[in-house]
Amino acid sequence: MSNQECESPEPEEEQAKPDSPFFEDIERRELHSEILSRSDSKGKDGKFTFSIEQVSSLAEKLEEMMFLIYDRHNKQMQDKLQELSEIMERISQIQTELRQVCHTVEAAYKDLCVQPEV
């Protein structure tokens, strides 16, 4: 067992999610391992040779990984945008409250500054 296999930066519950970075990393390693295992045979010119089926299979796996990553990032972005929308709404409410307080303070100041007529 290598040091990389022993390391587990994510908490236990994070590892249980199929769309977590933990599984994404495992899938990436598996794909990399598969590419390396299929590329053991080099052609006469020293270049890797792959069959159309191998390339197609690897391309499909890569596409699946990309869609999984895209979906996860899309969900994260949607969550962040929702949070931002809620925060902006709260800021708008606070601005309205602040304007009301300013108008109240302004009115109170004017009332204090008015000279009584003698």
TrEMBL record:
<protein>
    <submittedName>
        <fullName>Synaptonemal complex central element protein 2</fullName>
    </submittedName>
</protein>
<dbReference type="GO" id="GO:0000801">
    <property type="term" value="C:central element"/>
</dbReference>
<dbReference type="GO" id="GO:0007130">
    <property type="term" value="P:synaptonemal complex assembly"/>
</dbReference>
<keyword id="KW-0175">Coiled coil</keyword>
<feature type="coiled-coil region">
    <location>
        <begin position="70"/>
        <end position="97"/>
    </location>
</feature>
<dbReference type="InterPro" id="IPR034609">
    <property type="entry name" value="Syce2"/>
</dbReference>
<feature type="region of interest" description="Disordered">
    <location>
        <begin position="1"/>
        <end position="23"/>
    </location>
</feature>
